[in-house]
Amino acid sequence: MRTRLDPGAILSSLYLIVLSATAAACGAPLGEEESAENLHVFSPGCVEIDRMLRFRDRLRTDDDDRAIYERTKRALAAREWKYVQHYADAKSEVVEAILDRARRDHGD
Question: Is the pTM of this model over 0.70?
């Protein structure tokens, strides 16, 4: 006997779904077997949700950090990456520095 999943119950248990065309956004080459999509699914209360939203909001409101992030992404996108994750990892130091400033300025 197969168990039927209720799509409404599944969707109500998800807090945030983000879909982005990662490879196209960063210019990273993909192998033929790889997908260009990057799907993030978070359960309610996941700390990564607040982190991602804080980062987004910081880039929307701080010209200097937005410029730093843009320069970093452009420089990294000009390189060739075997895996898109290596590109994402290479941005980590800049992302964390921006998040640190956002937390500091927010009083966290």
Answer: no
C-alpha 42: how far from chain center: 12
**Is the distance from CB of 14 to CB of 42 less than 8 angstroms?**
yes
Instruction: Provide the pLDDT confidence category of residue 81 given band limits of 50, 70 and 90.
Output: confident
Structure tokens at 32: 């033929």
Among 57, 24, 17, 56, which Cα is nearest to 40's? 17
Helices (H) and strands (E) in the chain, counts: 6, 2
Q: Distance of CA 2 to CAs 5, 6, 24, 61, Å?
A: 9, 13, 39, 50
